[in-house]
Every structure is written in C-alpha cells, then in structure tokens.
Amino acid sequence: MSTATTRAPEGRYGRSSDERSDRTLKVVGAALGAVLLVVIGWFGYHYVVQNKISAEVIGFETAENAVRVHLEVRKDAGAAGYCTMRSRSEDGEEVGRADFRFDGDATRIDKVVTLRTKARGTSAELLGCHPE
Q: pTM for the complete prediction?
C-alpha cells in the first residue's frame, strides 16, 4: 500500500490575501465595537449624573385662584434645581404653571407650594425637575 499525500487543488480554497482581509475585518470590527461601548457608556454616565433631582406629588388642594401642592423632592446633597408644576381646569385648559426652586444640603425635602392659577384648577401635574 502506498502513502499518497492529498493536496487541495491550487486556488480552490482561497488565497493567503483572504486571511489578511479576514484579520483586517476582525480588527476593524473590534475597534468599532469598542467605540460603540465607549459612546454608550458616555451617554449612560451623563444620563445618571445629570438626573440629580426628582420629585413626586403627594397630594394637592384646589382653591378659586390657587392650587396647594405637597411635593416630595429627592436630590443630591448640595444640589440646586427646580421643579415645574402646572394645573389644568376641568375642561383641560392650562390655568397655571410655575417653577419651584430647591437647594441646600438636605437630600429629601417635603414642601407644600402654592401654584397661582387664573381660574379654578382641578389638577396638579409635575412636569419635571432639572438641576441648575
């Protein structure tokens, strides 16, 4: 029995330049993946860092030209910012809007604020809180 060496036909299964192309493609893909991770991390970091103030409406009382709103504000110690409130009438028209500022070292603030309205308000909505 003879030992025959089997070889693949020349040029049939690719060239050595295909190996270089594959390697280049892998390097480019890894670099783009790393850049994507850095961008996602940067946006995530700034999203978390920028959200220093949040609040919740605990309750409210309406009067003819004002709405008294009980707010619970949570913030970083020393952070300053404001929360925007609005009130609507029974037909849905906005009758009052105001910003209420919060600062100091406390991380949790319970405060009753008065939102002046041009007509009787039937709601108190927290539109959002923003750091200064």
A: 0.61
